[in-house]
Specification:
The protein has a five-stranded antiparallel β-sheet with strand order 1-2-3-4-5. It has 108 residues and is of the alpha+beta class. The longest helix has 17 residues. The chain has a domain of 72 residues. Helix content is 34%, strand content 24%. The chain is globular, with a radius of gyration of 13 Å.
């Protein structure tokens, strides 16, 4: 689950149109937070966004599916961002906004 500082810098730059957010190292990766809720992370060596009812179809339409490290454990609600979205700052902002919406629906 390791990541490089160069990759972290790339992700931060790609999120430049998204507005203010925080990030912190956690569990060998990085968590990204807005309004105190985690909406994204660098996990499994990739940038992932929180997925729920409002954005799941976006990921499916791009051929993505949830990562499954251990099939006996509950899946984490974070899916890898497709490369074509990650490389487009404006589109990534839209996807990140939806992920924040899903994060804010979570437990208070």
């Amino acid at each position: 689950m390791a990541y490089s500082e160069d990759y972290l810098s790339f992700i931060i730059d790609q999120l430049s149109e998204f507005g203010a957010f925080e990030h912190k190292k956690m569990f060998g990766g990085v968590g990204f937070f807005k309004e105190g809720k985690m909406f994204a992370g660098i996990m499994y060596g990739n940038f992932c966004l929180k997925v729920g009812n409002s954005n799941r179809q976006d990921f499916i339409d791009h051929g993505m599916e949830p990562k499954e490290e251990n099939p006996k454990k509950k899946r984490m609600p974070y899916w890898e961002v497709p490369p074509e979205v990650l490389e487009n700052k404006s589109l990534l902002k839209i996807w990140a906004d939806k992920a924040v919406g899903e994060a804010l629906k979570g437990k208070k």
